[in-house]
Write a structure and sequence with these properties.
The chain has 127 residues and is an alpha/beta fold. The protein folds into 2 domains: 1-33; 38-126, Immunoglobulin-like, CATH 2.60.40.420. Helices cover 24% and strands 31% of the residues. It has 1 helix and 8 strands; from the N terminus they run αββββββββ. It has one helix at residues 2-32; strands at 38-43, 49-50, 53-57, 61-66, 75-76, 97-102, 108-112, 120-126. The protein has a 4-stranded mixed β-sheet with strand order 2-1-4-6, with no helix packed on it. Strands 3-8-7-5 form a 4-stranded mixed β-sheet, with no helix packed on it. The protein starts with a helix and ends with a strand. Bound molecules: copper (II) ion. Copper (II) ion binds at residues 47, 72, 113, 115-116, 119.
Length: 127
Amino acid sequence: MRAALVSLGALVALWAAILFGNADAGEQGNKKARDIVVHVVKMTAGNKFDPDSLDVKVGDQVKFVNPDGPSHTATSDDIKTGDPKKTFNTGVVKKGQDASITLNNEMTYKYHCEFHTGMTGTINVKP
Ligand SMILES: [Cu+2]
């Protein structure tokens, strides 16, 4: 029992070291990095992305929200043929849900909803 307690204590100490170690590294990293911006794109009940064209910076996040519509996806057009590191797919976003992606490549993403023809959008990722 005593051995088990000591082991548990060691584990907690190790976990704390990892946790706080990472926190320190993160703070140092953030001093140089700019703040990440979260852009919100609404998936509307009328089957549109709003806005349907968006400029972001490398590393930014895009949060797709579906407040009141039918289920949608935000799926990059080349999801099946493109570089997996340069494509994205939110999967199904049901009414009341949201899904966020992070864009780390400087490029233009064309994307669509897998359920609704003509529900399309563009994200320009700039340095
Ligand atoms: Cu849709």
